[in-house]
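Duplicate of #3305? Posting structure anyway:
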């Protein structure tokens, strides 16, 4: 005899039905709610280097995994993913089909909004970080009913665009309040506190993103993060599983891929645009990251043979 559906089951079904209407085809869908995106895929995918922006990922159907360094995190409708800063993991959709596509919502997090939320909430609402708990920028936690309820009410605004200007900021704040007061609270608080190591590394990453196409010394990044070069290198690798220079190289390659796909640049012009002086070096490093030379990879993506 099967168990009766729970309220959480009903909420997930409600969220799924809304998301399916507003993400009718595979790909990334920006809706009418600022900061909210829907992602849909009808089949599993091969592991592929990806760019994960800061925010919260709630899977409504299917399953995905993210590999960052030696760590593999699996997330599904029961477990949400908190991305603490712009990261470059290897992502892979592991469970999806045409009848039951992978579907998730992604909600952007703003350090300014999180800081205001933390100030209003007060430190007593957030559990302290456990002794020995790893300092990570990619974290999983079970999805609570309260978090799911807030997310569903936010999704309903896709059907009620007239209410978005007033209600969307309130509901987004509630979603992150539920995260802040749950198991991921210590990690979210670290993103909001200006003097935390996580926030300092995020500032260094922001500089890398702004100047990815220019030579950057570790000393410059360390100054932005208010750390010594040695300390920066240590915590940067702990949080991102890369050195700052590796991170910059991967950023360049991701941006070059975007330019070739979205703007039609050839490999030589894309390489030059992102700061490579040697086309052959660009081609070697591109193939090492994405598995195929630039022209072949772009062709495969355009024909749908590999995901973006």
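Output from current build:
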């Amino acid at each position: 005899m099967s168990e009766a559906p729970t309220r959480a089951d009903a909420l997930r079904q409600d969220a799924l039905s809304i998301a399916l209407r507003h993400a009718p085809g595979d790909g990334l869908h920006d809706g009418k709610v600022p900061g909210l995106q829907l992602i849909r895929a009808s089949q599993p995918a091969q592991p592929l280097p990806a760019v994960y922006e800061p925010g919260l990922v709630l899977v409504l159907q299917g399953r995905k995994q993210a590999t960052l360094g030696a760590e593999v995190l699996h997330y599904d409708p029961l477990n949400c993913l908190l991305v603490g800063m712009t990261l470059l993991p290897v992502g892979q959709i592991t469970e999806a089909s045409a009848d039951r596509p992978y579907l998730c919502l992604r909600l952007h997090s703003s350090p300014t909004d999180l800081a205001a939320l933390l100030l209003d909430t007060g430190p007593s609402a957030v559990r302290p970080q456990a002794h020995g708990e790893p300092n990570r920028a990619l974290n999983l936690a079970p999805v609570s009913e309260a978090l799911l309820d807030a997310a569903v009410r936010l999704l309903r605004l896709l059907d009620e665009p007239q209410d978005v200007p007033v209600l969307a900021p309130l509901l987004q704040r509630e979603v992150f309040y539920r995260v802040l007061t749950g198991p991921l609270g210590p990690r979210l608080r670290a993103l909001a506190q200006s003097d935390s190591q996580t926030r300092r590394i995020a500032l260094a990453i922001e500089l890398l993103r702004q100047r990815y196409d220019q030579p950057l010394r570790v000393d410059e990044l360390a100054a932005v993060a208010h750390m010594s070069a040695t300390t920066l290198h240590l915590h940067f690798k702990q949080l991102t599983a890369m050195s700052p220079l590796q991170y910059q190289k991967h950023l360049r390659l991701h941006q070059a891929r975007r330019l070739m796909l979205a703007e039609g640049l050839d490999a030589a012009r894309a390489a030059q645009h992102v700061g490579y002086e040697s086309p052959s070096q660009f081609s070697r490093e591109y193939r090492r990251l994405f598995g195929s030379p630039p022209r072949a990879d772009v062709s495969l993506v355009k024909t749908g043979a590999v995901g973006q």
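Confirmed duplicate; merging threads. The chain has a mean pLDDT of 91. Residues 222 and 232 are 6 Å apart (CA to CA).
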